[in-house]
Amino acid sequence: MGEHTGVLTERLPSLADYYELTDKDLFAKTVPFSKFIAELRQRGEFAYRRTLTCPNQNRVTVQDPLTGTVHELVMMASNNYLGLTNHPKVVEAGLKAMREFGVGAGSVPLLGGTQVIHRRLEERLAQFKDCEDAVVFSSGYGSNIGCLMALLRRGDTAINDRLNHASIIDGCRMSGAQVRAFRHNDMANLAQILVQGDAEPGGKLVIVDGVFSMDGDIAPLPAILELARRYGAKVMIDEAHATGVLGATGRGTPEHFGVEGQIDIVAGTLSKALGAVGGFVASTREVVEYIRFYGRSYMFSTNTAPAVAAALIAALDVIEDEPWLRQALWDNIRYTTATLRGLGFDLGRTETAIIPVLVDDDAKVLRMNKRMHEEGVFLNPVAFPAVPKRKARLRLSLMATHTREDLDRTIEALAKVGREFGVIG
Fold first, then answer.
1. Contacts of 294 by beta carbon, 8 Å cutoff, 6+ apart
2. In this predicted structure, what is the pLDDT of residue 398?
3. Phi/psi at 290 (nearest 5 deg)?
4. Active-site residue (options: 78, 167, 213, 297)
5. Taking the mean position of all CA atoms in its chain, how far away is CA 325?
6. Could you write out the DSSP letters of every residue in 310-352?
7. What was the pLDDT predicted at 66?
8. Which among 119, 149, 188, 317 would be 20 to 30 A from 403, CA to CA?
9. Residues 6 or more apart in contact with residue 185 via CB below 8 angstroms
């Protein structure tokens, strides 16, 4: 391949080639994979674990792993949708709590690790999500794992949208329940599965992402809710990418559709629009209390740091008190989406701050990302196993703090690189 051309003269390996290698030596698969990673680094296409030397914000400085030099890039790979990671009120709340409560919780939450600041956060999240109670986990992945392992048993059925987050899929598998999947946002297919399981004795749980993390589209929640009620199933929604983004006041997908208080389980991370780290599950008091005792990732993990809990409470306050941040985010979403589509890019079904630029070819997406880095834009190349094979894409994640200059610089670079690689005409 020429330096700046998208013509591939040979098929290059990708992550998909190293996923199912079998050998009597368990570690044998790691040797060819290590060589593959070394080749990516040599070609300058290794786009992972790039090291920031500053806060995660609209412009970042990144250290070159080979030369040690630092370069400024437009950050388009962050989930810090509202800029709350370094919002002054959020930072100050965390610092104050650290001085008051120390740097760690010191124990698991069920035993000696629950402080008053953790109880305040749970109460605040329950109120924000229009639920009776909430439980906080130390990670978003752990919140889905713990919730699903606690509530699902053998004989129960988990019914997943096929594009649900990996933490949901893993939690369902680990629970021992029967797992079924319906075609993405396909209500006729969901109805078929619910009808097929109507005679089964166990409970049924329909699980969806509010906003799907790789495509940026929204689950049709009212239709899902209506079908679940008709066939006696419960509904769980993961609000990781919807909290702070969707709804008139940023409360997420249920508010967006006007069905707040009707969803059986509302879960999500605390690491995206809320700007910190952790996860939560909100539901009835009885369900939440059950999860506290049977959610293994809750029982056996030290509680969230008190500074993080305080920062999250402040973040929820900012979401309510500063609605212009969400408005700025949506202004950026509309401008960027319309402009990229006007240039001919395929953005799939996106409706939110997650904008996939579909490329399909795994090797090409890494080469395009290298060029985008050279043009001063930090993007995420996404390939298998994060997305299905031949569904690679460059993923943009917009923030309220992106300026119009940031957006235009990104769009111009994408147009240039997209033409080089034949993605647009």
1. 149, 150, 151
2. 98
3. -65, -45
4. 213
5. 20
6. HHHHHHHHHHHH-THHHHHHHHHHHHHHHHHHHHT---TT--S
7. 65
8. 317
9. 161, 217, 219, 220
Q: How far is CA 248 from CA 21, 132, 275, 283, in A?
A: 48, 21, 20, 21
Distance from chain centroid for Cα 178? 25
pLDDT (tens digit per residue) in 101-125: 999 999 999 999 999 999 999 999 9
389 is catalytic: no
Q: Which helix (H) or strand (E) holds 120?
A: helix 116-128
- Looking at residue 317, what is its pLDDT? 98
Q: Determine which one of 165, 241, 364, 370 is catalytic.
A: 241
What is the rounded CA–CA span in Å between residue 297 and residue 149?
A: 9
* Neighbouring C-alpha atoms within 13 Å toward the C-beta of 252: 32
Q: Residue 58 in 3-state DSSP?
A: coil
Residue 201's pLDDT is: 85
Residues of the chain with pLDDT under 70: 1-12, 66
Per-residue tokens: 376? 């001063």
Rounded to an integer, what distance in angstroms lies between the CA atom of residue 204 and that of residue 236?
A: 11
Asked if residues 177 and 307 have their Cβ atoms less than 8 Å apart, the reply is no
Amino acid at 65: P
Identify the pLDDT of residue 386. Answer: 78
- State residue 1's pLDDT score: 35
At 9 the pLDDT is 42
Residue 272 designated active-site:
yes
Sheet holding 392-397, edge to edge: 354-360, 392-397, 380-382
How confident is the model at residue 8, as a pLDDT? 45
CA neighbor of 336 nearest in space, from 280, 267, 409: 409
Q: Does the active-site annotation cover 213?
A: yes
Angle at which helix 221-230 crosses helix 187-196, to 10 degrees, equals: 20
Active-site residue, from 118, 129, 272, 364: 272
* Whole-number Å distance between alpha carbons of 326 and 84: 11
Task: Look up residue 57 and give its two tokens.
Answer: 């914000």
Q: Each residue of 140-159: b (16+ CB within 10 Å) or e? A: bbbbbbbbbbbbbeeebbbb
Q: What integer pLDDT is reported at residue 146 of this predicted model?
A: 97
- The structure's pTM equals 0.92
Give the span between the Cα atoms of 208 and 356, in whole angstroms: 19
